Amino acid sequence: MKMLGRLSVTVLLLAGCSRVLAEDYEMRLREEVEDSPGKFRTVESREAWKPSETAVIVCDMWDLHHCKNAVVRANQLAPRMNALLKAARDRGSLIIHAPSSCMQFYEGHPARKRALSAPDSGNVPEGIEQWLTWLDKREEQAGYPIDHSDGGEDDDPQEHAEWAEKLRKMGRNPRAPWTRQLGLLEIDGDRDVITDSGRENWNLLEQRGIRNVILVGVHTNMCVLGRPFGLRQMARNGKNVVLMRDLTDTMYNPAMPPKVSHFEGTDLIVNHVERYVCPTVSSDQILGGAPHRFPGDSRKHIVFLIGEREYDTEKTLPGFVSKHLTPSFRTTFVFADPEGAARNTFHGIEAVRDADLLFVSVRRRALPQADLKLVRDHIQEGKPVIGIRTASHAFSLRGKPAPQGHAVWEEWDAEVIGGNYTGHHGNALTTEVRSTEEGLHFLGDESPFQFQSGGSLYINSPPRPGQNILLLGKVAGIDRLEPLAWTFKRSDGGKTFYTSLGHVSDFEQESFVRILRRAITWCFE
């Protein structure tokens, strides 16, 4: 972790009035952990945050900007952001509006007066008023994953020139045209505060005993990270700070290295934050529904549904995505609790509503009925599915009744996976994997391959009609070959790829990784 002591503190009093304690935020914090030099894996932890101990800082959501596309994207962010601010405010969190260099506009505003009147905390960190370029040497040595040395403007040159002329005619400085915060974001004069000062911000947090800080706004690779109230200063000085990754944007020009789309560039910066600065969260954790998605972001969205205890796919799948899937895809991980009654709870499963592809690694879970309906709706819409290993019996309890309010899908294997799972051979028997001609055609390769899997061989014979078998498996002493991977055209018209591989060691096999990557691209063909 980059900061210590994720602790809850005191109850917040706003405007001298005691507020009713609201239900805790159930936060799912995502970060990248470095297991060995240069090798990271995604982990997610869950924490309960008291709203009264939490602040939301809105960074530089200005009314205008020198980059026209930045203005467009800020206006697209604003409605969801305003809904978040309202929800957090109503639950007792402090909202800090921080439109830098715009304090003159708010002179006399009650929210500005409230910031100015906060008493000195007596523990103001040294350097809190300064821009912080790097959190530490580790982040500095890593450097940014995108090149924004040109300022990050991604406007069409002609449109940019016309925009600059329009700003001049408005009497604005085309290089710094902002004067206030975007009007789409409401400021509550009775409860909110307005400041762009690191000292004032710190005093406000300390006055209210706030340890939990959520940063929203723009631009992540510049102001959100570097401002005196930004992520680095909050992390360096011990605040439990997170970036709300779906309510932010970057300054990045796709013509600059690594020459990816603007939205891929944003994801690369989010990944940088998770590795070197602090965890990230998403707005659905407070608002519900699906996280914000920019209308111009045309990337396919893959939702990984993970809930099994045997094969560590909560580690191997994020590692696979980090290493083998570039930000050309949007990815969301939805994890289940591992044990007890909560094992049927998949946190953030609402993301399935927005999924273009559902990737399943689940074993024998009975979902709440509304949650399973999200999965059923995805299938009924004919959207693609990928399943690995225990996904063949993802929502089956072997005929046992589901807990009250929950549901199973015993026909999932036959209807969606296209399989015929009836058990597996002994764990001590080594599985030999070999490609079929259909598998080589699927991969676009003419060279047959074989490797050994670390997992037991699942029994899926006889094949089910409609399977196109890509891999076969065999164990010593048994002549019959078992289907190991196949594609399946479902009755709803959708596509499914399934493989009973997925043991930890399988992810170290180049052939397994290749076919898994190919399966993802095949789903969108």
Summarize the main sheet: 9 strands, mixed
Shape: elongated
CATH architectural name of the largest domain:
3-Layer(aba) Sandwich
Number of separate strands:
21
Q: Segments where pLDDT lies below 50 for 5+ residues?
A: 1-20
What does this structure look like?
The strands form 5 sheets. Strands 12-11-13-15-21-20-19-17-18 form a 9-stranded mixed β-sheet, with helices on both faces. Strands 7-6-5-8-9-10 form a 6-stranded parallel β-sheet. Strands 1-2 form a two-stranded antiparallel sheet. Helix 1 links the parallel strand 5 and strand 6. It has 2 domains: 13-151 and 181-287, 3-Layer(aba) Sandwich (Rossmann fold); 301-523, Rossmann fold. The longest helix is centred in the first third of the chain and has 23 residues, at 68-90. It has helices at 68-90, 110-116, 137-142, 157-169, 198-207, 220-226, 231-236, 262-276, 284-287, 313-324, 369-380, 412-417, 437-443, 510-523; strands spanning 13-14, 17-18, 25-36, 39-49, 54-59, 94-98, 193-194, 212-218, 240-249, 280-281, 301-307, 330-335, 357-362, 367-368, 385-388, 406-407, 431-435, 450-453, 467-474, 482-489, 495-499. Residues 1-20 have low confidence and may be disordered. It is of the alpha/beta class and 525 residues long. The protein contains 14 helices and 21 strands. The two termini are 40 Å apart.
Question: Could you name the key traits of this structure?
Answer:
21 strands; 27% helix; 525 residues; 9-stranded mixed beta sheet; Rossmann fold; disordered N terminus; alpha/beta; single chain; elongated
